[in-house]
Write a structure and sequence with these properties.
Length: 304
């Protein structure tokens, strides 16, 4: 097919792309609730633990105040989150077990998604201020009996979820290019280092990741884990809301823009739709503009 013909079909392809979502496999996320102890102060209406199974929410507020999930507007509906009160816990199982993999990006093995978010220093521009997060201790078990606590990191913590790579900080509608909830952000980045960063720069920091709080099994001496437990200490602690837990996976090919496991017409359609712009998702070679070189990257990696 000639490039001119492809360009003429661009509008049709973009409509299809906007409605396309990456397939999720059950073993990509926690697959079962082992135990849920609500604790003393869970949020009213947020006590269904199965809400922590499956993928993190990318759109929230449907029917009330809809919006794409971004680091400035987090998931908030009862059908998206489970709340753990003080003294409570949530235990989730994985099949197959989570594995410590040396070749995982940054050595991170799993990601926990809560409903933390950034304050905005320049609303509605999306300039990063302080992190608003509730915490929560994370523990892992290699056998379902022995538990080891992670001394660092919080279940509902850093980094807030970014559902899409191509929407603004307060987008109402879903985007066309989903972020990857199996890829961690560089753990050397801190909340303090992001204060004052604008939204374009923040998206570059996420580099296609959906964010989440990352944990390395090797850091607590484990090679695998069949279950995770998220616990809130007793006493005056805020409740903690959990959306999902995802295993980290090998990074997708650069040209797989929509992260569906294939380099195909949907990825090509996105390049054509953003051709000539500075769109960060379509700029595969980092040149600052979506151009013929990015088109070549997609065609060279064509997999269907």
């Amino acid at each position: 097919m000639h490039l001119i013909e492809l360009l003429m079909r661009r509008a049709v392809v973009v409509v299809v792309l906007a409605a396309t979502f990456s397939p999720a496999h059950a073993d990509d996320f926690a697959h079962a609730v082992v135990e849920y102890i609500p604790g003393s102060n869970p949020a009213t209406g947020y006590t269904n633990p199965v809400r922590a199974l499956g993928a993190p929410a990318r759109v929230t507020g449907e029917g009330f105040d809809p919006g794409a999930v971004t680091p400035f507007q987090s998931a908030w509906q009862p059908d998206e989150l489970v709340s753990i009160g003080a003294g409570g816990s949530l235990t989730l199982a994985f099949d197959p077990p989570l594995a410590n993999a040396a070749d995982n990006p940054h050595g991170i093995d799993f990601l926990v998604f809560g409903n933390s978010f950034f304050a905005d220093l320049s609303y509605p521009e999306g300039v990063v201020g302080g992190l608003i997060a509730d915490g929560g201790l994370v523990e892992a078990s290699p056998d379902g009996v022995t538990w080891v606590a992670f001394p660092r990191g919080a279940a509902d913590g850093f980094l807030p979820t970014m559902g899409y790579r191509d929407v603004g900080p307060y987008a109402v509608d879903a985007g066309a290019v989903m972020s990857d909830c199996h890829q961690p952000v560089d753990p050397s980045i801190t909340a303090a280092s992001l204060v004052g960063v604008d939204y374009a720069a923040l998206r570059a920091v996420y580099a296609g990741s959906a964010g989440g709080s990352g944990f390395d099994l090797a850091s607590v001496g484990l090679s695998s884990a069949v279950a995770l437990r998220i616990r809130v200490p007793s006493g005056p602690h805020p409740n903690v809301e959990i959306d999902a837990v995802a295993r980290v996976k090998a990074p997708p090919a650069v040209a797989d823009i929509n992260r569906d496991g294939a380099i195909d017409g949907l990825d090509l359609g996105y390049i054509l739709a953003t051709f000539g712009s500075a769109d960060s998702a379509g700029d595969l070679d980092g040149s600052g503009v979506v151009d013929a070189n990015d088109l070549t990257v997609v065609l060279a990696g064509w997999s269907v």
